[in-house]
Hints:
alpha/beta, Rossmann fold, Tyrosyl-Transfer RNA Synthetase, 2 domains, six-stranded mixed β-sheet, 15 helices, 8 strands, globular, binds resveratrol
Amino acid sequence: MASIRMDVDKGLELIKRNTVEIITEKELKTALDEGRQMSAYIGRATTGSIHLGHLIPLSKLVDFQKAGISTKVLLADVHSVLDDQKSKWEDLDLRVEYTRKCIELAFDWEKQPEFVRGSDYQIKSDYILDVLKMSTIATVDRATRAASEVTRMKNPKVSELIYPIMQALDEEYLDVDIQLGGIDQRHIFAFAREYMPALGYRSRIEVMTPLVASIRGPGTKMSSSVPESNIKIYDSEEAIRRKINSAYCPEGMTHDNLLLQLVGFFILPAEGKFKIYRDAKFGGDLEITNYSELEALFSEKKLHPADLKKAVADYLVERFKFARKYFEGNLDLLNQLGKEFLPS
Ligand code: STL
């Protein structure tokens, strides 16, 4: 008994760490208490290039795996067209291949998640019938609110309101217990919680990760289409170092600090520790094992931005070497996808 109790607590702690909200934690705890074998998924619309901003929600999958939860990644190709045609129907094969490869290569997976392509099931009649059913129940107002944070919604198309309906139904068709996503998905998750029971499906547990700070500081965004605003996982070593060096990271400021977030949400979960090599005259080497330790050091100005930047850049250069090598040999694929996919 004692050991099972410990496993439940450990599992809950793993799932909760680095999240900002869980709807609901009580349901999660009950499921763990009952020892249920669970599965979780995260969806990624195949809209643009994969960069650092995408890796933090994806990193959570590693914690899920460690907690014994099986994991899936939805390559949401249909969604990428529904979102104001950010992809073209005829480019979806390529977009899916690209997105999958990036996610495979960016993580040192103990076990690869299961990849599922949206269009493999979303255009079958049983799914479409459910979309139609939900469209008769969901109000335009609710669907609009749900879509607003995630799709373009400039001169909104009907497809942008279908988007949240499909994202809700994906939980059922992927046969999962948990959906994971950034906190920007909150309204969509609430929409799913509300409307799934109306179709006779259970509401799923929704787990949300923090929003990633931007390289250029508060008020800016990491955007796939602006190369200097993001770091692609296959950017050149020189570009990684240049962009990290330019990142917003004022001494002592822990808010909106991408560097701290990368260590806390991306590096520590994967490695368990993070080494910062420093000259003895600047305090000598540091080994950090948890985020609060790092935050304290930084806010007390015992860790200088330059040392943090150097250590994070070194890590990213090493971590992404497989992705860099792969895409160096497959520039054709990137060229076919378009200019914004090319490395800087
Ligand atoms: C984006 C960017 C991002 C996440 C998503 C889309 C998620 C899309 C999605 C689609 C269908 C699902 C779940 C999630 O079932 O970071 O453009």
